[in-house]
Design a protein that fits this description.
Length: 226
């Protein structure tokens, strides 16, 4: 790995610290307000994920994505699109995130080029190894804890899956996902993740700004005590 590749990887680790994922149907109020409050609280990356029952489609989806993208740009927060390369390219997104059931990660890498971030979900070591071969820049590992948010989520894996990936030479940036809250985020980092990605811990918090700050503090403690 060249020095500049190493620097980029280290930068990505920091950007994954507090990663908010959401679509309109995860929000109890205006998604633009939720994003603004989360930015004020200190999120480091944002993913637009419009999925599940009640998800927007068509022009409404494009319009919301485009407004969220604009706010992220204004605040220099990387904007990632879940599972829609066309939308990502249309909005000049900073990256794309795909799950195992989505478009093949190598094909996504070819379409987005080398300069955009590619995130891939991985439940276990074989999925992590395959994702890396296909060009992933970071792995989203989980669900670590029980989650109500993803309708087709697998069983919670617990933190050992991250610890064992780290023991099995998985070095690329990892962000934990699934049921992460301020009170368990520190352990996720302790297990070897670089950051935490959350939906409801922020979108259902009521006070999104304080919830984000609490997550950010927990991640900092985790990194400090590692
Ligand atoms: N992938 C695995 S779990 C999950 C996704 C998208 C949902 C995470 O949502 P929450 O509310 O943070 O548990
Ligand atoms: Mg997906």
């Amino acid at each position: 790995m060249s020095a500049s590749q190493w620097q980029q990887e280290e930068q990505l680790r920091r950007l994954l610290s507090v990663y908010l994922i959401m679509g309109s149907n995860n929000c109890l109020k205006d998604p633009m307000v939720v994003l603004e409050e989360a930015i004020q609280g200190g999120i480091t990356m944002f993913q637009y994920r419009e999925k599940g029952s009640g998800a927007l489609a068509g022009d409404e989806r494009f319009s919301l994505a485009s407004r969220l993208r604009g706010k992220c740009r204004e605040h220099h927060i990387p904007f990632i699109v879940n599972d829609d390369v066309d939308l990502a390219l249309a909005l000049d997104a900073d990256g794309v995130h795909v799950g195992q059931e989505d478009e093949n990660a190598s094909a996504v890498r070819r379409r987005i080029g080398a300069d955009r971030i590619l995130g891939v979900s991985a439940y276990d070591l074989p999925e992590a190894e395959a994702a890396i071969r296909m060009g992933a820049d970071y792995l989203g590992v989980g669900p670590l804890y029980r989650t109500q948010t993803k309708e087709d989520a697998k069983a919670a894996s617990g933190l050992d899956v991250i610890a064992s990936m780290r023991m099995q030479h998985i070095r690329i940036p990892i962000v934990g996902i699934g049921g992460i809250r301020p009170d368990n985020a520190e352990q996720v980092i302790g297990a070897g993740a670089d950051g935490v990605s959350v939906i409801t811990a922020i979108t259902h918090a009521g006070d999104e700004r304080s919830a984000t700050k609490a997550l950010s503090d927990a991640v900092e403690r985790g990194l400090h005590n590692r």
